[in-house]
Every structure is written in structure tokens, then in C-alpha cells.
Amino acid sequence: MPQRDPFRVSEVASRRTGLAKSPLSRDAIVDEALRQFTSEGGDAVTLRKIAKALDTGPASLYAYVDDMAELRALVLDRALAAVEVDQGDGPWRERLEALLRSYIRVLMTSPALARMSSQTIAVGPNALRIAEALLGILEDAGVDRLTAAWAVDMLSAFVTSVAAEHAQGADPVAPGGPVAQALDRAPASRYPRVHAAREDLVSGTGEERFAWSVDVLVRGILSRAGV
Q1: What's the farthest any 2 CA atoms get from each other in the chain?
Q2: Which residue numbers delimit the HTH tetR-type domain (predicted)?
Q3: How far apart are the C-alpha atoms of 193 and 174, rounded to whole Å?
Q4: N or C, where is the chain less crowded by C-beta within 10 Å?
Q5: Could you give the C-alpha distances from 57 to 51, 62, 64, 223, in angstroms and in order?
Q6: Contact in structure between 85 and 133 (CB atoms under 8 Å)
Q7: What is the Cα–Cα distance from 201 to 26, expressed in whole angstroms?
């Protein structure tokens, strides 16, 4: 089946008539789906529920989206419109970290969005807007185009993995959390290195771990690019 152009918003004329109903469109469907994903959670959202909220039947939605997988990609891209890509004229490293923080904050708006980001690839103008900004920042850092292109993919994967890990709203490595408890129960005789490093494995705040991870990634990108 041919793929629809994600940039073409109103490619099908609505068959709905009557003054009581707003015209059905891909924009309306994506907006309602995003509202439901962020307010009700991903598992509760179905095409039937979206259609009901729009006062139409599920079959009507297929004139605009092929299936729920395509709709999820559109919803994720719509959510990414809130990512702040313009980080001013400061040093490239500060702009990179600020963009990545904005990216994570948007994904963590709701657990459903955070989980979706690790399962769905957003393909649309907002995902490309983020990629364009990252490529520009890395270009300012002196990174060659090929390395920068692969780095964008790696940085995006880092952001989505962090968001998904914290999708439940609790730090999985927080003191007293499930990871810390598992480490405390691990017998030293069987896991001597894990036992010795048990406090280090759950040390640091989320911000400290984020900054450390970005630093490691950036150093690797620059080293690879020979900068």
C-alpha cells in the first residue's frame, strides 16, 4: 500500500455535512489522538474512541490514516512541536544540552508519550526540525556531516530511552527503589563486582546522570570526527 505524505495535512475532502459537526481532517484526528494519549494513557486509546470523540465512525478515520501505527507516528511528531530548537547564540555545547533537555521534557509530558517515543519513529516536520537543529549545532562544533548524521540518531535514541525509563514518574535507580533493592539482595559471593559497586550503581541525581551521559556522548562524537 502506498504511504501517505506526512507533510500533507488535508489530502482528503471530508464527506461530513451539517452545521453541527466540525469538518473531519487529519489535523483534527491527530489533535484528538494527542489529547487522549496525554490524558488517558496509550493503552486506553483506540481508533474507535477517537472516532467517537469526533462524532464519527471508525471507518471514517481510514480516509486519513492507514492504521494506529501511522497515527502514533503522527501524534508523536505533533507532540514534538513543543521542543524548543532555537537555543540562541550561545556556545554550541550549551545549545546542544538545552535542546536535549527540552526534547526530554516534552516526551515526559505524559508516560504515554514517553513510552511511545521508544516504540515509534516520528516522521514529519517537527522531527525533521529537531534533526535540522542538531545537525546545525554539530556543524558549529566542527563535526563532519556523516558523523553528525549518525550522532543525531544516537542522541535521539538517548533522549527517548531516558524518557521511557522514567515514564512511570519515578527514578528507577532512586534509593530504596527496585534497582537498589535488587542490588542490596545480590549475594557478594555470586556477584562480587556488583556488590562492591552497589552504591555507585545508584549514585547521582537524574540531572547529574544526564549531564554525564551527554558529556560522554559528545566526547565520543568529537573524537570520532577528529575535532
Answers
A1: 74
A2: 23-83
A3: 20
A4: N
A5: 5, 10, 13, 55
A6: yes
A7: 46
